[in-house]
Design a protein that fits this description.
Blueprint lengths: L12 H13 L1 H8 L10 H17 L5 H10 L6 H14 L7 H29 L3 H13 L31 H7 L8 E6 L5 H14 L3 E6 L4 H13 L10 H8 L5 E6 L7 H13 L6 E5 L13 H18 L4 E6 L21 H4 L2 E6 L2 H6 L1 E9 L6 E8 L4 E4 L7 H6 L2 H18 L1
Helix pairs in contact: 1-2, 1-3, 1-6, 3-5, 6-7, 9-10, 10-11
C-alpha cells in the first residue's frame, strides 16, 4: 500500500494557497489551525515564509495582522530571503489581495482534520514508551491534550487580539425601502444580514408591502429571491409588473407589450419560488439558495411571504416555540447569504380593527420580535380600505428611533404605497378626528408631494 505524504502536497497548490489566505483573513480559523499546524506541512517555500510572518507578528504583538499590516511586513522583513523567494511571496500576496476564497468551509474542515490527525499521531508515538512504565495518567493526559487542540475557539471576541478588527469599517450596504421617511430612520434601509418584519392583520396588504419592497430592490439593480407560500408565482409576478410599471393589475393584459418593454430595461432580476403552504422549511429555502449560488446567482435580497407559513425544521410541543425558531433561522439565513431578508407576520384578533397595530398584537409568538432588526406594522380599518389610507407604526428599529406612526396612502390596484411624514397627532386625537378630514388631509399632502417630485 502506497504511503500518503505527511504534508499538504496531496491537496495541491490551490488548496494550500487558499488555506494561507484564510489564515490571514479569518482570525478564528488561524487560532485553531495554529495549535496543530507545522509550517513544514506546506510544500511550497513561499507559503512557509508567508505563514511564518503571520505567526511571528501574532506572537510578538498579540494581535492578528490586517492586510495593511502585511504590506508593511513584506516590505520590511524579507531582506534576508533570496530574490526569487521575495518575488514569489509578493506575487502571491498581490494575487490574493481583493480576491475571495471559494469552498472556504471545505478547506477549513479538511486542513484542520489533517493537522489534528498528525498531532494525534505524534502523541500516540510519544505514549509508546510510557506504556512500558504503565504511566496511564500521563498517557491519558497526552492523548487528551492532543484531542483538544485545533477545536473551535470558544473564547469569543478577544479585546486585544482583535484590536484591528473593530477599527475596520464594515459597510451595512443598506437597500432602500423606497420610502424616504423610513430610510431616514433606518440609515438607508435594511442592511446586510438584517431581518425586517411587516406585521399586519388579514387583508391589510402584507404581501403587497413585501412586493413593493422587492420591486424597489429590483429597480436598484439587485437580484431578489421571492418565496411565496400562499399565492402562486404568476400572481406575485403580475404584482411586480404592476408595481414597477404603475400599470393597474386589471389593465396588465391590455398593456402587456409596454410592460415587457419597461421591465426588460431593469438592471436587477427577480426569482419567484412557490411552495405549498407549510410544505417548505427554512432548510428548504437554504438548499434552494445554495443551488442558486452554485449557478452563479448573487442574491441581493430575500423575501419570504410569509414566515408564519413555513414548516418547522424540527417540531416542538408548542407552536410559539416553532415560530420563534423559524424567525431565528431566517435571520441566520440573512447573515449566511449576506443580504437583507424581509418577511411578514400576522396579527391576532386584536389587530383586525386597530387604528395602530403594536407588537402586542403579533400572533402566536411575541418572541419573534426579539430577533428582528426592524419591525413595522400596517393597519387599515374598513374605512381606510375604502379611502386607500392607513398607518404604519415603527415598532422596532435597531438602527434608529422607533415608536413612530406614519400615515400611508396605499393603492393596491398598482401595488404602490407612500409613507408620509410622521404624524403629530396623539392616538386620542386621531380617533376623535373625523375620517373625512383625515382622508382629505392625506390626499392633499400626497398630491403636494407628487407635484414636488
Amino acid at each position: 500500500m502506497r504511503k500518503m505524504p505527511e504534508d499538504f502536497s496531496r491537496f495541491g497548490k490551490h488548496f494550500q494557497e487558499s488555506m494561507v489566505q484564510l489564515m490571514l483573513e479569518d482570525r478564528n480559523y488561524c487560532d485553531q489551525i495554529t495549535e496543530v499546524l507545522d509550517i513544514n506541512f506546506f510544500e511550497l517555500s513561499y507559503l512557509q515564509t508567508f505563514v511564518s510572518k503571520i505567526l511571528g507578528y501574532r506572537e510578538k504583538y498579540k494581535v492578528h495582522p490586517s492586510y495593511k499590516t502585511m504590506i508593511t511586513i513584506l516590505r520590511t522583513e524579507l531582506e534576508s530571503e533570496n530574490e526569487a523567494l521575495q518575488r514569489q511571496v509578493k506575487e502571491y500576496f498581490a494575487r490574493i489581495h481583493g480576491s475571495e476564497v471559494e469552498d472556504s468551509e471545505y478547506i477549513i474542515g479538511v486542513s484542520l482534520d489533517f493537522c489534528r490527525k498528525q498531532k494525534l499521531k505524534g502523541a500516540l508515538m510519544e505514549t509508546v514508551e510510557l506504556m512500558q512504565s504503565s504511566s496511564f495518567d500521563e498517557i491519558s493526559k497526552i492523548i487528551n491534550n492532543a484531542l483538544s487542540l485545533g477545536l473551535g475557539n470558544e473564547a469569543g471576541y478577544e479585546y486585544l487580539t482583535d484590536f484591528e478588527e473593530r477599527y475596520t469599517l464594515k459597510a451595512r450596504n443598506p437597500q432602500s425601502t423606497g420610502w424616504e421617511h423610513i430610510d431616514d430612520i433606518t440609515g438607508g434601509g435594511l442592511g446586510i444580514g438584517e431581518l425586517g418584519v411587516v406585521v399586519a392583520p388579514t387583508g391589510a396588504g402584507k404581501s403587497m408591502v413585501l412586493t413593493a419592497l422587492g420591486a424597489e430592490a429590483v429597480k436598484a439593480g439587485k437580484t431578489i429571491v421571492h418565496y411565496t407560500m400562499e399565492l402562486s408565482d404568476k400572481v406575485i409576478g403580475r404584482r411586480y409588473d404592476s408595481c414597477i410599471t404603475n400599470v393597474p393589475l386589471s389593465d396588465l393584459n391590455s398593456f402587456k407589450e409596454q410592460v415587457y418593454d419597461e421591465i426588460s430595461q431593469l438592471d436587477g432580476s427577480l426569482i419567484i419560488k412557490e411552495y405549498p403552504t407549510k410544505s417548505a422549511s427554512t432548510q428548504t429555502l437554504r438548499n434552494h439558495l445554495e443551488k442558486l449560488k452554485k449557478r452563479g446567482v448573487e442574491v441581493g435580497m430575500i423575501i419570504v411571504d410569509y414566515a408564519d407559513l413555513l414548516k418547522p425544521v424540527s417540531m416542538t410541543r408548542e407552536k410559539r416555540h416553532d415560530l420563534e425558531n423559524i424567525y431565528e433561522e431566517l435571520r441566520g439565513m440573512a447573515q449566511m447569504f449576506q443580504c437583507p431578508l424581509w418577511t411578514a407576520s400576522q396579527t391576532n384578533r386584536s389587530g383586525l380593527n386597530a387604528e395602530v397595530v403594536t407588537m402586542e398584537s403579533i400572533s402566536e409568538a411575541f418572541n419573534k420580535c426579539f430577533v428582528a432588526d426592524f419591525i413595522c406594522s400596517v393597519s387599515r380599518t374598513a374605512q381606510d380600505k375604502v379611502n386607500n389610507t392607513g398607518r404604519m407604526f415603527v415598532a422596532k428599529n435597531r438602527n434608529g428611533v422607533d415608536g413612530i406612526v406614519y400615515p400611508i396612502v396605499a393603492d393596491w390596484s398598482t401595488v404602490s404605497m407612500q409613507v408620509l411624514a410622521e404624524s403629530t397627532e396623539t392616538m386620542q386625537e386621531m380617533e376623535e378626528r373625523s375620517l373625512s378630514e383625515h382622508k382629505a388631509d392625506l390626499y392633499s399632502r400626497y398630491k403636494n408631494k407628487n407635484k414636488e417630485n
